[in-house]
Specification:
The protein is 38% helix and 19% strand. The protein contains ten helices and nine strands.
Length: 300
């Protein structure tokens, strides 16, 4: 029987820590992974192992933001990611990804190549000469080919009603083994499905958050858990979630931007991302433009 390694003091481990830090020659502005959003990366100090909770009302773009984040982490850092979905189908998420990358309206992509190969399938845009535009389908396929190297790092898993943390951990382990990766980012959309369905949402949230935080620590990964805000009273400050979820490392609350109704259109919604808890960085709020037809968020 092999003996367990003896307990070492922090002083005894200090030389090893200094050696690891000395090997890091690159100058970095943040400690964790790039998010693809400059202000968000700076505020969070990058993406590090732990539990990130994304909360917002239905229809505010939580799923689109979470998918864009996992894609951008893969693209900018070469890190694998897994997107667990309980509500969206893999095909629909793929269409949204293509819409974001190509800036072709997702409604047009759903109609297929036969529609897009004709000039009337070119998305509405302000161009002096539409004859110079390439067919939309060519634009989509080109965007897909350019993204394939990092999309090969991203996995979408459709979850059923019976999917639990055990199955999620198994998928994560499979991806880690496949890519020989010690760390990755996992998104769990509609994570309220992991709790006991006979419990009210308020009682379910801290329990699910605690389980996910323990999973993030034990696997040394980043978990972005998406939770719906179904409260009728939306006038309560976003900071209230800090009291309700003491276990999360970072809490992000997505809301329509207050007092910005003049910017709200069918294709563009002004939104605010409140950073109400942040273990290693700044609290505050960031402004985004959300473009639903392209499932895309852009920092202001």
């Amino acid at each position: 029987m092999s003996e367990k390694p003896g307990l070492q003091s922090e002083g005894a481990e200090l030389d090893g820590l200094l050696g690891e830090l000395q090997k890091e020659h690159s100058v970095r502005d943040i400690s964790g992974w790039e998010t693809g959003f400059a202000n968000l990366s700076c505020a969070l100090d990058g993406i590090l192992p732990g539990l990130y909770l994304l909360i917002g009302p239905p229809g505010c773009g939580k799923t689109s933001l979470a998918k864009q984040l996992v894609d951008q982490v893969a693209m900018h850092n070469g890190a694998p990611g897994v997107f667990f979905t309980f509500a969206e189908r893999r095909r629909e998420l793929g269409i949204k990804t293509l819409a974001r990358l190509s800036t072709i309206d997702s409604r047009e992509i759903r109609r297929g190549s036969a529609y897009l190969l004709h000039w009337y399938g070119v998305p509405k845009a302000h161009h002096a000469e539409t004859a110079r535009l390439a067919p939309s389908w060519d634009k989509i396929t080109k965007s897909a080919q350019e993204a394939k190297p990092w999309l090969d790092l991203v996995y979408v898993v459709e979850c059923s009603r019976g999917t639990g943390l055990t199955q999620i951990k198994a998928y994560i382990g499979e991806v880690q083994t496949s890519h020989h990766a010690d760390r990755l980012i996992a998104v769990i959309d509609d994570c309220q499905r992991l709790g006991a369905m006979d419990q009210p949402m308020n009682a379910r949230l801290p329990i699910v958050a605690e389980q996910l935080q323990e999973t993030a620590v034990s696997l040394n990964i980043a978990i972005l858990a998406v939770w719906p805000d179904l409260r009728e009273d939306r006038g309560v400050l976003p900071q209230i979630w800090c009291e309700r979820v003491p276990g999360a490392d970072v809490i992000l609350v997505l809301q329509p931007a207050a007092g910005e109704s003049e910017h709200v259109t069918e294709s563009n919604r002004a939104t605010t991302l409140h950073i109400v808890r942040n273990r290693g960085g700044e609290k505050g709020k960031l402004l985004f433009d959300f473009f639903p037809p392209f499932a895309k968020f852009v920092e202001r």
